[in-house]
Design goal:
- The chain is α/β, with parallel strands linked by helices and 122 residues long.
- The protein has helices at 16-31, 64-73, 82-87, 104-112; strands at residues 4-9, 35-40, 77-81, 99-102, 119-121.
- It has one domain (4-115): DsrEFH-like (Hypothetical Protein Ychn, Chain: A), CATH 3.40.1260.10.
- It has four helices and five strands.
- It has a five-stranded parallel β-sheet.
- Helix 3 (82-87) links the parallel strand 3 and strand 4 (99-102).
- Helix 1 (16-31) packs parallel to helix 2.
- The radius of gyration is 13 Å and the shape is globular.
Length: 122
Amino acid sequence: MPGKFCVNLTCSEDNPDKATVAFVVAGAAAASDKETMVFLSSEGVRLGAKGFADKIHEEGFAPLKELMANFVKAGGKIFVCSPCFKKRGLDENNLADGATIVGGAKLIEFLSVDGGSPCVSY
C-alpha cells in the first residue's frame, strides 16, 4: 500500500492514552509500507527527549518506548517541532532514537509534496 501517512501528536505523559494510540496507528501505517511520519508538537515534543517515553505504559498496550522503537525500526520518522522543544527547555543533544528536530516547514512539505499525505491528530 504505497503512499504517505502523517500522525500529529500533541500529548505525552499528560495524556498517555493518546500518545500510545498515536504510535499504534503510526506503527500500523509504517507496517503497511507507507512512508510514515510522526510530528511531535506542543507537549508531544517531550517524547523526543531520550528516555522520556520509558515511564509511559498505557494499560492494554505495549509500553510506549517499545511502540516508538518498533516504529523507527519499521522506517518511520519522528520529527520534533523545534520551537516547541526549545520552549520547554529540552536538550537538543539528547534526542530519542529516530527523533529529528525540525521546523514547521518540514510538516508542510510532507503534507503537500508528491501528492500530499493524510494526517491524523492526537
